[in-house]
């Protein structure tokens, strides 16, 4: 606590007359620059003592920063489940962090929870995160179901989603499906389609 206090005093000493809108921006900056988990917990405590914790942007940022400080489980997950409200941005953060941190099964579980217990619709950023988790966990059948969901929602036309689908099928050795999707993709030479090209280059020896 003593080590955290000088940093906090310095950050707040010139911010005594901030209006609420500026406070949100200020706290967001503090969370983003927090140098260690101890200071992050102090900022967390300050948010809990104010109505600012109800701000979905700040609470989502808190989830992300705990993960960046290698406190994904339990800290990030605990903050996420105690958030007063969540939006698709919040869900994408927690899904992505678990997927990137080597816990694809947890990412899949959370996605199923989102679909079952909330009315939040996945977007073109959600589905690539979950497809990546499916590939990492070997959940081929679920990935195929997600492909159907992409088509149903009209998100298969997004280059982000199409790229993720191609990568998923390549990773799961479903080369025919990957080739069909790749051939149907528009604007394959655009930068955001580069992962698809890299995936297709590896298709000669995918497994």
From TrEMBL:
GO terms for molecular function: RNA binding. It holds the Pfam family PPR. Keywords: Membrane, Repeat, Transmembrane, Transmembrane helix. PPR repeats lie at residues 87-122. The lineage of its organism: Eukaryota, Viridiplantae, Streptophyta, Embryophyta, Tracheophyta. This is Pentatricopeptide repeat-containing protein. It comes from the Eukaryota. The chain crosses the membrane at residues 159-182. The keyword Repeat applies. GO terms for biological process: RNA modification.
